[in-house]
């Protein structure tokens, strides 16, 4: 008979309840001196709760003033570190991402366009971005938005940010090379990179003042991805995937955060893990960065409309770039947005492209001077037919997404 | 009863028999003054034969001297132009790529590593490339190579190069912006772009001397992709896909070539098309570049091993780049090659990655300073298990691919 | 800012806490006179808790005595009925199965082989079945079993049993035709069908004695599938699917139960729904039975080993059957079990085939006298390679599943 | 350089040119005494030409009189036998189906409804079938039909009929069990099975009179599938699949025919094979019937509409059948036809369902008394939207398929 005694829930090892900067088990810097907050054995199944990357600053409402005024000094918040018994530098930490779900009590997330001068984003300059957002309601495996009617898609829930702790040597390498880039670029807007910064540094544990100061002074910001993983925003590193991380410190010290429902639908929620260790895996697999096996349950939308982009015309100037896949990627995205604007508003089109399960492929980076990148938009997420048809596309009355209370877009 | 009278083959409108530079219906420059070689009606199904991009310079043999000495002045050879009745500037030309097959009489193709100073390639500098190649035998829908044992994969046969003819204005724009890039970059090796060049210019038709000189002087090289399509090397623009091209000249003047079996397995063969026209489609679909619907029969290998790359360390120098997806893509590819070298030789690993049905996704280009790109290698193409396992990977005795007759690699 | 006020959980409309036969909102007969237990509006998202089909009789332990002694008089238990405002006979009730999950507090399920004389099953006679079971541990989206080592698969979670309430006329039709079959078959073992039965009849509501007696006397057993849906055990009617049911009574009166994790991993848990109504849908869609759209997140295992079966040799007697797809299906399954027995024990092989995400296709039922049915076993669920290889398959030391405490198998 | 000398086509070992009953290398009976027509070595790639199953009796025209009057005494015609060097009874013959294509010169096929009294078919009695047909034009990987406008689908080209030769013992078993079925069923229409028949027997080789008579007297008809493979009509045993056959006679003696483009689009064409042998494979893999690995390039249409069927009401009589998957399959198909008749004519709907890449799954055969079978119709093959919508479906003016010249349907 099924009983309480033979039905044991998997334990939740980090719980989030308070404001981010008072929460134990949350940190926002990478540093080898942040001790593990919890320790697990290989094979154990456990859950970790995560706040959203901003620390709950964004609300489920219909204007974007919270996006406009978001405080970014403390981002991104991570849950951890989690030590795995027996892991040592040079090993490979195998992490099974068994599930990623929103909280039952909080079935929504958001996609934001950030202001050019506060957060920026892919088209911050092209669009002279003003804050806007779409709230997405989670309905089981699907999300819909009252701010972008007519679409519904299944989530590729994933941690935007997951990685092992760097060693002191690796951290020094990061700080050196990123410092050089900052030095070269001067006062770019938006900034090219973010140096260590004591203000806003938070480790989620009671540590000595010296250590806290050292972490504030040296700790790498959690914004970008690096050799240990970090903020790679890889949609397909989703629930069900198996990831192989290089280990740089004793215990591996895994941290995770920035949960997303799909493309960039930011959310708070729960991630379920189990881990194992392959001794000497860094050498065995030539592991310079994480590698992973994707999930068998990533949504399958076989019909797609694909947009191409080439490395020309970064800011509308028609300039020829030299085999630049970033420019080509932007062009493909701009071409998709232009297409979607035949149906949606400009802000809706931009937000939809950020949120949806798109796939962007690097086609070619060998045919000088043009890199070619494609972006595939699944057709199955639209309630209406958006295929290219004889009669063209029909602009629907889909209103507008959440914008600033002063009405500026 | 089935009879000859009720069984009519689809016509072959361009046939290739002679050396490339004597062949009618072949050209290697983009120019509005190259007249259509054939004209078709919308809805008609027809076949076009193509030579490989080098014009049959590479042989089915076991050394790579032909790669080393390849003459690149005439590349890439295209079949066409094909005019479609009724197409006018501003229209959208819908092209169904109904099939792409090798010739029955020539069931093989090749993947090459070109010399740093003659052809280059993605890792020409990192590898100080010496000529190497793999011959792939086509066995129905599959390819195998005696030069890279232990792999077999289904083809995503596609035209590497397909596009409509540019208008005079568009051609002028190309020449201007590419000229500026060349001017800025001076004598880079390999070159950043290729200006118009009379030597080797070929149009495949008997035209007046003035026109030929004009085309030689102004005609855009067929090497890169541009707004009309061109050499985008998009694996998924494969047989079965439907492509929407902007039309710039009366008749659209479609040309095609550079057939590939999969990633970069170069081949000669036959492409089957049908076309239709959407009047005013450029405006209707905001068509700055081609868009397309992928094929329902692209091979499905659900299990994949995914490699990550970030925008650091372009040439082994550890340098930090600013959100550069090209660098991140290269890193992901180098990580995959390093992994494959645990099993194959360096040249085999590089060639295999060029040939196989890999998929490279742009993960993120918003988390300064690191772009993150992933590269997915399907596991189903290997006869042996290449998953990361407790015991590591086993170096097999897989010999070596075709190398130079002087033995230099 | 995210607040409690703007974060509202979807409501749970039926909760299960007590023994099945004391639980409100649970019933085990189909009858139009069972009133709705809850009523919802179209568009509302809501959750329904379900007990497992046996009412929690099976435990998470290592012998199968609970399977051997299971009491089947009360099966299958359903949660409901759920009325949808506005639904009327002749309408189509659209049901979105938004999610299906086990309880957090009960992360396990089971697959059972039932005794020939108590529950039976597909091969009850061929195997002279003795009770056995495998317990499956749910680890996020995956299940593994200590009783069948070496396999892990992602769940296609689904309600085995879901349907709308029959009208009095439809119920009478069922009782008549099934009664005739029972009359014809006499005392078959296992029985060919189950007539209405007052003993064990349960409706989960306080109703008058007359009504309860009528329901006991007339109510259709919940065991088979019928025109309203019911126990179809359609694996692909899974979370994420959209189902269109014919409506036979005012409110439609939907009921659901018999949750499964994958093939036949029985579990208790939570199903999330939303509904809508298409007026007159039965006529609009010629709706004789439910139709549905599958989920975009059903697990994708592209590599499969497929077994064939023909309509011969039902019970090892070599007899030729006339185009009988049931016999062909059994043969295909027996062929798969024989193959798996090269690696696993007989009981493990049988249970694995019951639990795994297999797909069985009807190949042909036109080539007299043999129907041909195939059964596809995904290769990606095995930790070891089970492909047909030169050296054959290797019997692993995988122990045995849970068997009877008297050791009889 | 690519040359004629290094470009060798795969050989075509059986060519078809004459009427079927004069053609060498064609036979229409299974018998161990038919000697191999060609012999191949393991590993060799070779091509085999096949006529369609009727021997070219059906024409590319617009009436169905040829279907009405088809002569079925000689069907199905097979190409072969093909001996593989080294194969012996008890071995497993591995057959790679490398490609299956129509002849270039004959880019069309057909789907037929056969008369109740001449050929029959799945719904011969329900529909009181009158001859009808649809001609499908092959356009690269796609087929379209002027007789069923508005659909286009990619082919899952496959041999409907492929198998190894039976031993004398196996043949005797077939003849005995099928003879018993025929004896039991008397004069059913359509017949339940077909006994050996000298009239129309053809072996495609010059053999002695005694042998020819023996083959005529004993040879199994090629209509059904059996333990050796045969006419299983398994759509997914398509080009790109790898099949494992049991070997019953020295050389295995493989034969093949009845090529199809997709569901049941009959065609003549070319199949490309290679083979290998696993010694003792019958025992190693418990090989009672063939098993196979599906192709990686089977078309992927993720969006599907699924119809359910239960084992009730075989001939419109409402009768309850006992767990009969054949009846359930028919019900699912009839439900799909009823749905499609909202758009197409009855004959078009029936033919479309026969031709299209549908998938029929056996859901459950354990919930007495109803087997449940589903049939999935891919949505991507329709040019118009056939989803269940608020407004219902729209009957299009799609004319009618090819019918008898006397106009009877």
From TrEMBL, chains A, B, C, D:
<protein>
    <recommendedName>
        <fullName>Formamidase</fullName>
    </recommendedName>
</protein>
<dbReference type="InterPro" id="IPR054833">
    <property type="entry name" value="FormamaseFmdA"/>
</dbReference>
<dbReference type="Pfam" id="PF03069">
    <property type="entry name" value="FmdA_AmdA"/>
</dbReference>
<dbReference type="InterPro" id="IPR004304">
    <property type="entry name" value="FmdA_AmdA"/>
</dbReference>
<dbReference type="GO" id="GO:0016811">
    <property type="term" value="F:hydrolase activity, acting on carbon-nitrogen (but not peptide) bonds, in linear amides"/>
</dbReference>
């Amino acid at each position: 008979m099924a009983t309480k005694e033979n039905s044991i829930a998997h334990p939740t090892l980090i719980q989030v309840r308070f404001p981010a900067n008072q929460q134990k088990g949350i940190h926002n810097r990478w540093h080898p001196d942040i001790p593990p907050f919890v320790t697990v054995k290989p094979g154990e199944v456990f859950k970790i709760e995560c706040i959203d990357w901003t620390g709950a600053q964004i609300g489920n409402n219909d204007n974007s003033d919270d996006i406009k005024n978001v405080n970014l000094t403390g981002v991104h918040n991570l849950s951890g570190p989690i030590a795995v018994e027996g892991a040592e530098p040079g090993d490979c930490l195998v992490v099974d991402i068994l599930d990623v779900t929103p909280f039952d009590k909080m079935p929504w997330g958001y996609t934001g366009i950030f202001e050019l001068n506060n957060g920026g984003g892919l088209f911050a300059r092209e669009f002279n971005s003003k804050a806007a957002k779409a709230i997405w309601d989670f309905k089981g495996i699907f999300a819909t938005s009252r701010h972008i009617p007519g679409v519904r898609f299944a989530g590729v829930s994933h941690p935007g940010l997951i990685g092992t702790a760097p060693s002191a040597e690796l951290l020094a390498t990061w700080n050196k090379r990123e410092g050089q880039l900052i030095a070269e670029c001067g006062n770019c807007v938006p900034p090219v990179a973010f140096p260590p910064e004591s203000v806003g540094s938070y480790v989620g544990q009671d540590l000595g003042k010296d250590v806290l100061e050292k972490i504030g002074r040296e700790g790498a910001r959690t914004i970008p991805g690096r050799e240990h993983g970090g903020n790679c925003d890889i949609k397909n590193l989703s629930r069900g995937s198996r990831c192989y991380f290089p280990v740089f410190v004793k215990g591996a010290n895994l941290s995770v955060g920035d949960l997303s429902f799909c493309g960039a639908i930011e959310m708070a929620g729960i991630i379920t893990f189990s881990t194992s260790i392959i001794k000497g895996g860094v050498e065995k697999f030539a592991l310079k960065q994480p590698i992973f096996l994707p999930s068998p349950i990533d949504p399958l939308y076989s019909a797609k409309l694909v947009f191409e982009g080439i490395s020309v015309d970064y800011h509308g100037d028609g300039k020829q770039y030299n085999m630049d896949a970033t420019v080509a990627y932007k062009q493909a995205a701009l071409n998709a947005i232009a297409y979607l604007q035949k149906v949606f508003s400009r802000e809706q089109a931009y937000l939809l492209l950020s949120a949806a399960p798109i796939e962007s492929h690097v086609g070619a980076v060998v045919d000088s001077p043009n890199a070619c990148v494609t972006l595939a938009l699944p057709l199955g997420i639209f309630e209406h037919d958006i295929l290219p048809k004889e009669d063209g596309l029909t602009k629907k009355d889909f209103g507008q997404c959440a914008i600033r209370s002063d009405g500026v877009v």
